[in-house]
Write a structure and sequence with these properties.
Oligomer: single chain
Distance between the termini: 40 Å
Number of strands: 16
Structural class: alpha+beta
Strand content: 15-25%
Largest sheet: 8 strands, mixed
Helix content: 25-40%
Strand order of the largest sheet: 1-5-6-11-10-9-7-8
Low-confidence stretches: 409-415
Radius of gyration: 26 Å
Bound molecules: histidyl-adenosine monophosphate
Mean pLDDT: 92
Shape: elongated
Number of helices: 15
């Protein structure tokens, strides 16, 4: 019997995993630079947390959750997203006030698998809690946008909208329900079912796109505070030079949002209406999950989709340096040289035990190193031979210059 990864899941293996690791790393660094602390929450949580948080009548909760019972009969769910877990953790830790947390990890949705739509997928996300100020919305949008640029998705467009506050929504829902009711025979069965329970969901239904194209939109029915919040948001996007587009029918697939919602859409994904990431403000979520009323805003980006959208740019080399020990007397020197390189941030490796020079060069190529650094007799004069493994060109360098040669000089392959 041969086992295969379950449908809609992927093994992250070299060489593709190099890029994966680099993207995860740059996410951590960028989030840290903006002051976000690292958070990690369980991969499974109580089913009720997601049903409440994301909304009983959302597509994700109704159709896509991996629900199960544990041996004690508890109802649990593999997390379909991470925000609800982070907000739960914030409440459980007794936190109040401002909190900035960033995370990355797998999430699970039972969807029809295709490229960029997986049953297990990776989200990079962050949550900024404790402030209702529009500057927090802008910071979150900007950080996600910066990340897209860093990933090579320089042409991404941020689609933004406001869906208002709950009181604005009550009035608007009534209006939208009646509008949809009048056209119910043109709508899909799913949409008809949602007219009363959750009419906003019909606005982002792909099957009903043509019918709802003329429907009244939330941004035309905002209360004065939400309207001014939205105006400031747009001003801030302009000031920051973020390429955005107002998207009045963007409502997002989850119920916890109010006011700002946004998605990052690379032009190549536009046709399929697929976002590589999205988020919004969720001022009612902490309360809904049993905590105090703490406002929040956040986003999540899909790593699988970012990789699919960024295409096949050449991946970085796996290693910067492979050390080749030509003179076995100098093995321990080679190890201490490897330690020096590694502590300077050079990705470096060497084989164990006594091996022929040929075998070590073969390993250097197999391991996809950028250069081989040969440690032989010339070491006594403070020199090493550095061989570029793509061009085959070799040169002799003072050992002390290897680090700067590799990190910055020609052949420097750091991603
Ligand atoms: P979401 O829009 O449901 O939002 O998911 C965020 C991103 O996760 C999507 O834009 C997409 O890139 C990725 N994604 C979602 N489903 C799949 C899938 N089946 N396969 C591959 N990628 C997928 C959220 O999850 C919210 N928690 C975002 C948020 C954070 N809002 C506030 N804070």
């Amino acid at each position: 019997m041969r086992f295969r990864a379950p449908k809609g899941t992927d093994d992250i293996m070299p060489p593709g995993s190099r890029r994966w690791r680099n993207l995860l790393r740059s996410w951590d660094i960028l989030a840290e630079r903006y002051g976000y602390e690292y958070v990690a929450t369980p991969i499974f949580e109580s089913t009720e947390l997601f049903a409440r948080g994301m909304g009983e009548t959302t597509e994700v909760v109704e159709k896509q959750m991996y629900n199960f019972r544990d041996k004690a009969g508890r109802k649990l769910t593999l997390r379909p997203e991470i925000t609800a877990g982070v907000v739960r953790a914030y409440i459980q830790a007794g936190r109040s006030g401002e909190f900035k947390g960033a995370y990355s990890g797998p999430a699970f949705r039972y969807e029809r698998p295709q490229e960029g739509r997986r049953r297990q997928f990776w989200q990079l996300g962050l949550e900024y809690m404790g402030t209702p100020h529009v500057e927090a919305d802008l910071e979150v949008i900007e950080l996600g946008y910066r990340y897209m640029l860093d990933c090579g998705l320089g042409d991404v467009v941020v689609q933004v909208n406001s869906i208002g506050d709950p009181p604005d929504r009550t009035a608007y829902h009534g209006l939208l329900s009646s509008w949809l009711e009048e056209r119910s025979r043109l709508l899909s069965e799913d949409a008809r079912r949602r007219i009363r329970s959750n009419p906003l969901r019909v606005l982002d239904s792909k099957t009903d796109r043509e019918v709802v194209a003329e429907a009244p939109v939330p941004v035309d029915h905002l209360g004065s505070e939400a309207a001014s919040h939205h105006e400031h948001l747009i001003e801030g996007l302009e000031e920051r030079g973020i390429v955005y587009e107002e998207a009045p029918r963007l409502v997002r697939g989850l119920d916890y949002y109010n006011r700002t919602v946004f998605e990052y859409v690379p032009p190549s994904y536009r046709a399929a209406q697929n976002a590589v990431g999205g988020g919004g403000r969720y001022d009612g979520l902490a309360r809904l999950l049993g905590g105090r009323a703490v406002p929040g805003v956040g986003l999540a980006l899909g790593l699988d989709r970012i990789l699919a959208a960024a295409g096949d740019r050449p991946a970085a080399r796996a290693l910067d340096v492979f050390l080749v020990v030509a003179d076995q007397e100098r093995r321990s020197l080679a190890h201490s040289f490897a330690r020096r390189l590694r502590s300077a941030g050079v990705r470096c490796d060497l084989l164990t035990g006594r091996r022929s020079v040929r075998a070590q060069f073969r390993a250097a190529n197999r391991r996809d190193a950028a250069v081989a650094v040969v440690i032989g007799e010339e070491w006594d004069a403070g020199l090493v031979t550095v061989k570029d493994l793509s061009s085959g060109v070799g040169r002799t360098l003072p050992a002390g210059e290897v680090i700067s040669f590799v990190l910055r000089g020609p052949g420097g392959q750091q991603a």
